[in-house]
Design brief:
Layout: E1 12-15, H1 18-36, E2 41-42, H2 44-47, H3 54-64, E3 67-72, H4 94-105, E4 108-114, E5 138-140, H5 145-244
Helix pairs in contact: 3-4
């Protein structure tokens, strides 16, 4: 099979129990890595480097994936830890944490039924995993492994393409919103600058009007003063004329 165009790392996550489905998980990883590229498929043993924080790497991988494949074997529900407690009842169980994170993010989860396993019922699961039972499962049969994996690849390709289209649309929407915000900010700035210029012009006109009013008042005062002097001069002339007579 040919490699597809490289995409974001870890877009396909394989969740499995090593004690039960290690070999089927390895087969799927090889087939998916050959088709999509090894950087696009996360499987703990093959994807975690020496010295990495196991829990942190898995949490980041689940947070970045677009498809989670959960391999369910015949003992998937019943498997217990050293204390004899069912693993799925442990809130820190890695498989449970992986599924809870994927369900919360509404990632496409594809149950892979291995070894004639059956899908669990909701009452057999912790409440946080109840929605898993609504997911359509793929029965992985060794006798039709090629046909089953081809069907799986088609579904995964479709999902990745849809998610890529959604991301592209989201990126375009965010870019458009950013552009619109920039335009609106610039318009507001121009309006503010224009208003400032209008306010400055109005202030200048008020100052001119005030100056003009002051000058008119000064002229009127000067005219009144001249008028008063002219009256006194006329009165003096009349008085002088009467004296001469």
């Amino acid at each position: 099979m040919t490699l597809s165009t490289p995409r974001k790392s870890g877009r396909i996550f394989i969740s499995y129990r090593r004690d039960e489905t290690d070999f089927p998980a390895g087969w799927l990883y090889e087939r998916l890595a050959a088709h999509f590229g090894p950087d696009q498929v996360f499987k703990d043993v093959d994807s975690i480097e020496l010295g990495d924080d196991f829990a942190e790497v898995i949490a980041n991988a689940v947070g970045a994936c677009d498809v989670l494949l959960v391999l369910i074997g015949a003992q998937w529900l019943a498997m217990t830890d050293e204390a004899g407690r069912r693993r799925l009842e442990n809130s820190y169980d890695f498989v449970r944490l992986e599924l809870e994170a994927a369900l919360q993010r509404q990632v496409r989860i594809i149950p892979i039924l291995v070894g004639r396993a059956k899908m669990p019922h909701a009452e057999q699961l912790p409440p946080t995993l109840g929605k898993l039972v609504n997911r359509q499962a793929l029965e992985l049969d060794p006798n039709r492994f090629e046909a089953d994996t081809r069907r799986l690849v088609r579904v995964v390709e479709k999902t990745l393409a849809e998610e890529e289209a959604r991301r592209d649309a989201e990126a375009r929407r965010e870019a458009e919103e950013s552009r619109l915000t920039t335009v609106l900010t610039k318009a507001a700035s121009l309006r503010a600058d224009g208003q400032a210029e209008v306010d400055a012009a109005e202030a200048a006109l008020r100052r001119l009007a005030a100056d003009e009013s002051e000058r008119v008042a000064q002229v009127a005062q000067a005219a009144a003063c001249l008028g008063s002097r002219a009256r006194r001069a006329r009165e003096w002339c009349r008085a002088a004329c009467r004296t001469r007579r």
